Amino acid sequence: MIWLGTAGGVSRYDGKTFQNFTTKDGLPHNDITTIMEDKTGKLWIGTRGEAFVYNGKRFTTLTHDGNAFQNVFSIIEDKKGNVWLGRDGLWCYDGRTFTKVSDRGVYAIIEDKKGNIWTTGQVKPDRSLWELCRYDQESLYTKKPTVTQILSRGPALLGLLAANDGSIWVGATGELYRYDGETLINFTSKESQK
After folding, report:
1. Which Pfam family, any one of them, does this sequence belong to (predicted)?
2. CA-to-CA distance for 65 and 51, rounded, in angstroms?
3. β-strand partners of 91
4. Which end of the chain is less packed: N or C, by CB atoms within 10 Å?
5. DSSP secondary structure letter of residue 97
6. If we measure between CA atoms, which residue out of 140, 122, 169 comes closest to residue 79?
7. Whole-number mean pLDDT of the chain?
8. Using one digit for the tens of pLDDT, what is the confidence trace for 24-73?
């Protein structure tokens, strides 16, 4: 089964046919930004409106303190089964409760081999700057996790990947970076290509 998110809803492809879901079918919002399937088979879906979970039968809006999560651009499940989402900060869902981990802006989220969580996002209040941050796994579930800012630049740090060799790759507007734990290389600058 393949799921696709578009500005017009969600589509499921079973290898032969497509089944489309829109607000007419119960979606809270049609403009899909991210889709993640968890270990139990539920789909976590972020939109430019409300985020929600699909259990195969119905769509349930994700809420915290009675408020719907809005404008969620990234959702992942970590190795421990916690769900992380970016919405005006970094949030963690442990299966019962959503906890706000950080107020830093979040666009993309990944987990590396060591269990660290990495994010890209806009710096507040200056939204013209973006940053790449690492949340150390050793303090991740404490009230004050250790956060290391690796890169700050403008505009937009969008793509984020943890490679098999442990390096972190970041796609930016017109640039590509690789961080190996010590050195940050910009592959599109003339100095890096020498």
Report:
1. Reg_prop
2. 15
3. 85, 100
4. C
5. -
6. 140
7. 91
8. 988 888 999 999 999 999 999 999 999 999 998 988 999 998 999 999 99
Structural element, H or E, at residue 18: strand 18-21
* Token output for 14: 């079973």
Nearest residue to 29 via CA among 13, 11, 9: 9
Beta bridge partners of 120: 108, 132
What whole-number distance in Å separates Cα of residue 52 and Cα of residue 26? 11
Distance CA 146, CA 139 (A): 6
160's tokens: 């984020």
Please name each of the domains of the chain with its CATH number: 2-162 (2.130.10.10)
Question: Could you give the angle at the alpha carbon of 167 between the alpha carbons of 162 and 172, nearest 5°?
Answer: 70
- What percent of the chain lies above the pLDDT cut of 90? 74
CB 89 within 8 A of CB 101: yes
Q: Are strands 67-68 and 98-102 parallel, antiparallel or unpaired?
A: unpaired
Q: Is residue 82 a contact partner of residue 101, using CB atoms and an 8 Å limit? A: no
Query: At 190, is the pLDDT very low, low, confident or very high (cuts 50, 70, 90)?
Result: low
